[in-house]
Write a structure and sequence with these properties.
Largest sheet: 6 strands, antiparallel
Number of helices: 7
CATH topology of the largest domain: Rossmann fold
CATH architecture of the largest domain: 3-Layer(aba) Sandwich
Radius of gyration: 19 Å
Oligomer: single chain
């Protein structure tokens, strides 16, 4: 079988960043010598990858979507494909409750986290987040008991609560093959809201990204990091990171991420024992 890669993209929410990310990753994989195809996937449609190596990409907005993509990864492996990310790593990275426990087990500093079912145990102010989702979608900051009481009708099992840390910047730490790439700062200061730039990590932040990615069982990904009163802490681990940064033309995340994933697929993914085209 020729060297080939199928990028299976679950993106049904109209997210243009996903399409740009897929294009950059496909170009980097092609440059690495692989015949690469991007295939859209969706629930209810037959999924037949056109390659033995499969890279799942996704924009998940609910635990139901997360459960579905995990089952797709597991099913493709049973059919003999080499699949990235592995099912367990998808779950650990994309369910914030699972991420919290994986980080704690690996002694990676993160914010104390409670299930939405235990909302009364979290101090104020707190931030309520969907267990599955990204980019702050669905997040709510709660500063008073009245606001906390107004959340009683939410499906609590689908949310986590964390102490809210005021911060004006988030560091996005790309990691590939255990190596941290230059961190990207996403700024929220009023005069620079939305600006991005390459910026050194805060004191104590070096190594946290690599440790967080390893904690969820990934060879590559990005990690969101902020500063707290106790020092830098990890907020999230992204197993399907968004990689286009048009305002940073010198930043290439696709090439090192592709190298890390291809090496993992060829050395760590379970070998095929079935016909991947059946």
């Amino acid at each position: 079988m020729s060297a080939s890669l199928a990028i299976l993209d679950y993106s049904v929410h109209g997210n243009a960043i996903d399409a740009d990310s897929d294009r950059l990753l496909a170009a980097a994989a092609t440059a690495a010598g692989l015949e690469t195809v991007v295939q859209p996937i969706a629930a209810g449609r037959e999924i037949r990858p056109q390659a033995e190596r499969v890279w799942l990409r996704y924009d998940l907005r609910s635990r139901q979507e997360l459960s579905w993509i995990v089952s797709i990864a597991a099913g493709l492996r049973r059919r003999g494909h080499r699949v990235y990310p592995p099912p367990a790593a998808i779950l650990l990275a994309e369910d914030k409750w699972e991420t919290y426990h994986a980080l704690r087990a690996a002694a990676v500093p993160t914010l104390r986290t409670f299930l939405g079912l235990e909302l009364d145990r979290a101090g104020l102010p707190l931030i309520l987040k969907p267990r599955a989702g990204w980019g702050g979608q669905g997040n709510r900051v709660v500063r008073s008991e009245q606001e906390r009481e107004s959340l009683e009708l939410l499906p609590a099992e689908d949310y986590i609560a964390q102490g809210f840390v005021e911060h004006s910047r988030t560091w996005i730490v790309p990691v590939a093959q255990g190596r941290e790439l230059p961190a990207i700062e996403a700024c929220r200061e009023p005069q620079r809201d939305g600006d991005v730039r390459v910026l050194p990590l805060p004191e104590g932040g070096s190594g946290l990204g690599a440790a967080a990615v390893a904690a969820v069982g990934l060879p590559a990904g990005t990690v969101d990091l902020i500063e707290s009163s106790q020092g830098p802490v990890v907020l999230e681990v992204n197993s399907a990171p968004r990689i286009p940064y048009p305002d940073l033309p010198g930043v290439d995340l696709a090439t090192p991420l592709v190298r890390a994933v291809l090496e993992w697929l060829d050395t760590s993914a379970e070998p095929s024992h079935a016909d991947p085209h059946r």
